[in-house]
Amino acid sequence: MNTYIEHKNLIPYLLELGWMISKDTWTDCPQKVYDKLAKLSVDDLELVCMEYHSDITSDLVTNLT
C-alpha cells in the first residue's frame, strides 16, 4: 500500500470500490485514481460506486487509471 489517504472522507468510497485500507492512512488504490476520486463531489462519488456495483461500467474505474 503506497498511496497516503489525505482525505479521510474518501475511505468509505475506496472500500466500496474494492480498494484496501490500512490503519485509515494507506490504500492500495493507485495515486492517479485516488487523485481523480478526490476531485469528485460526494454525489459523483456515489454515482461511481453505484455504477461500479451495478456492473454497468466497471470500465469507469478502469478509465480513471
Description:
The chain has 65 residues and is mainly α. The chain has one domain. It has 4 helices and 3 strands. The protein has a 3-stranded antiparallel β-sheet. Strand 2 and strand 3 (26-27) form a beta hairpin. The protein is globular and about 30 Å long. 17% of the residues are buried.
Which labels suit this protein?
65 residues; mainly alpha; 3-stranded antiparallel beta sheet; 9% strand; globular
Helix content: 40-55%
Count all strands and give the number.
3
Low-pLDDT segments, ≥5 res: none
**N-to-C CA distance:** 16 Å
Quaternary state of this entry equals single chain
Number of structural units classed as domains: 1
Query: What is the tally of helical segments?
Result: 4
Radius of gyration: 11 Å
Largest sheet: 3 strands, antiparallel
Provide a quick synopsis of the model.
By secondary structure, this protein is mainly alpha-helical.
List the helices and strands and how they pair.
Elements: E1 3-4, H1 11-16, E2 21-22, E3 26-27, H2 31-38, H3 42-53, H4 59-64
Antiparallel strand pairs: 1-3, 2-3
